[in-house]
Design goal:
Layout: E1 2-3, E2 10-15, E3 18-23, E4 28-30, H1 35-56, H2 59-75, H3 82-116, H4 126-145, H5 148-158, H6 164-171, H7 175-201
Antiparallel strand pairs: 1-2, 2-3, 3-4
Length: 202
């Protein structure tokens, strides 16, 4: 087990020829962690932790996103033109992860505010809360992946309850196109439902 200075909550774990970046015992298995990634992590993990901490105000959240940043790089390896290029790329990934983190926080806070208005008898258990919050995050992520007009049409139909004609007027397309947009959105919903059912079964 090898620890790198500057990132006290993050370690490199080696076992059975597999490696993982793991803050606070959260392990992500990685088939191969090559020399270039070791060097990148060793050179910039401390800087990246500070970069994220200044934005998030939480060392724990910053450490989590440091891990997520390097996992992203593992999935999409690339060559860098010097240290400046390395830090620029790390910062770009980290900023995107911060945006996702803040959106998840706002979504969870909005749900908790609504939950607080419900009678105590209707309050979900801690286990149910965890499932509901994760489902909300998955639904939000699915909506973010939809093209803009598809997402707009879907929300106008599902949240505002508008008819095709009214949605078409809002979006600026024909009713026929609105039907195509909604069909596309429902396909994504069906895929997400199947994925969530699989997770819940496990």
């Amino acid at each position: 087990m090898q620890y790198f200075s500057g990132a006290p909550n993050i370690e490199i774990i080696s076992h059975s020829h597999q490696y993982a970046l793991a803050p606070d015992a959260a392990v992500v298995s990685i088939p191969e962690l090559n020399t270039s990634l070791h060097s990148l992590y060793h050179s910039h993990s401390r800087w990246l932790l500070g970069f994220l901490y200044r934005r998030l105000g939480s060392r724990c959240d910053a450490a989590d996103l440091v891990q997520d940043t390097f996992v992203r790089i593992l999935k999409r390896p690339r060559q860098f033109d010097g240290e400046r290029g390395e830090r620029s790329y790390l910062a770009t990934i980290a900023r995107g992860l911060c945006v996702d983190h803040w959106r998840r926080q706002k979504l969870e806070q909005a749900w908790l505010q609504q939950l607080a208005l419900q009678p105590e008898a209707l309050q979900p258990s801690p286990e149910q809360r965890a499932i509901i919050v994760e489902t909300l995050h998955e639904v939000d992520a699915m909506l973010q992946r939809l093209p803009g007009k598809v997402r707009q049409a879907f929300l106008l139909a599902q949240i505002d309850g508008l008819a095709y004609r009214d949605i078409a007027a809002h979006v600026g397309v024909s009713e026929r196109m609105i039907k195509k947009y909604l069909a596309q959105a429902f396909v994504h919903c069906a895929i997400l439902e199947a994925e969530l059912d699989g997770l819940l079964v496990e």
